[in-house]
């Protein structure tokens, strides 16, 4: 396992353990949240506020199956439908290659929590 994988796992655990018990309810109330299901079981979710991806999660059992890419495509489509020309997110270090494959570019120095700001510009043909 690489250092980025180790850091990503540790960061995910810190985030999960620090999230308030009403985080999901607040996200649903104030932002757009979509879930992916497989055989009636939630295997992933994405949270969007305006032109920002606030969170993306795919269960380990569904990782590398395309669920994250499908959720991102759906969210990007919704953001673009609002007339936005860019989408922003803060990526954990272990997720940088995933987002780079989707066309995201690093947009600044790491944040205090070590997440990395990224941006994707929608082209005229998307």
UniProtKB/TrEMBL annotation:
CDD domains: NAT_SF
GO molecular function: acyltransferase activity, transferring groups other than amino-acyl groups
Pfam families registered for this protein in UniProt: Acetyltransf_10
InterPro entries per the UniProt record, alphabetical: Acyl_CoA_acyltransferase, Bact_Acetyltransf, GNAT_dom
Residue ranges of every copy of the N-acetyltransferase domain listed in the record: 1-123
Keywords tagged on the record: Acyltransferase, Transferase
Transmembrane segments: none
PROSITE patterns: GNAT (PS51186)
Domain of life: Bacteria
Name assigned to this protein: N-acetyltransferase domain-containing protein
